[in-house]
Design goal:
By secondary structure, the chain is an alpha+beta fold. It has one domain: VC0467-like (3-Layer(aba) Sandwich). The protein has 6 helices and 10 strands; from the N terminus they run ββββααββββαβαβαα. It is globular, with a radius of gyration of 17 Å.
């Protein structure tokens, strides 16, 4: 089962791993060698402005005044390499290391996107994440067979317009399911 890039993994209620309990993960890459994704609903107690300052990237006064996201939190993208940064953003811009995730969303991991954001010239919609979720060969497939994850369609509304605390419910609803009807017990038919 390869080809999940651009889809959401929504943690099943029975998934009790503290790294992924009630998580919503955007699959960025998936092939026979493994999978890489970004958790979209785990804000950290660290602002984007703090990250830019730590990297020596100046923010223009106009950007700081007009873009409240600079003061907002970066997100915990997953437990792997927690200091590696990613910007998930709208597809209008392409930077040095931009990867297409979907028709509407790109992922960039190069400094130039941060400099553009600091200068007030970055993407209109973006989310900064530190770290990522990774699965080795066939690991995600085993977790799917174990009913740890539900596969949902991705919409750019989730990272850019839905509050982090509401993203799990929203992801479930994207599948046409009422979250109140999910059980913490899973089985196989």
């Amino acid at each position: 089962m390869s080809g999940l890039a651009g889809k959401l993994l929504v943690a099943a209620p029975s998934l009790d791993d503290p790294n992924f309990n009630k998580s919503v993960v955007l699959v960025c890459h998936h092939d026979e060698h493994g999978c890489m994704g970004l958790t979209l609903n785990r804000p950290r107690k660290l602002s984007l402005q703090q990250v830019l300052a730590e990297l020596g990237i100046k923010t223009s006064p106009d950007a700081a005044r007009c873009d409240e996201r600079l003061l907002g939190p970066v997100h915990d993208g997953g437990p792997v390499d927690p200091m590696r940064g990613f910007i998930l953003h709208d597809a209008w811009h392409v930077y040095e290391s931009t990867m297409r995730i979907s028709e509407d969303v790109h992922l960039t991991a190069s400094r130039d996107v941060l400099e553009a954001i600091g200068a007030g010239q970055g993407p209109e919609h973006y989310l900064m994440l530190l770290g990522y979720a990774g699965w080795g060969k066939q690991q995600l497939e085993r977790e799917l067979l174990n009913n740890d994850w539900l596969i949902a369609p991705f919409t750019a509304d989730i990272p850019f317009h839905v509050a982090p605390a509401e993203r799990w419910d929203f992801g479930i609803r994207c599948m046409g399911i009422d979250p109140a009807h999910l059980s913490e017990q899973c089985g196989h038919a």
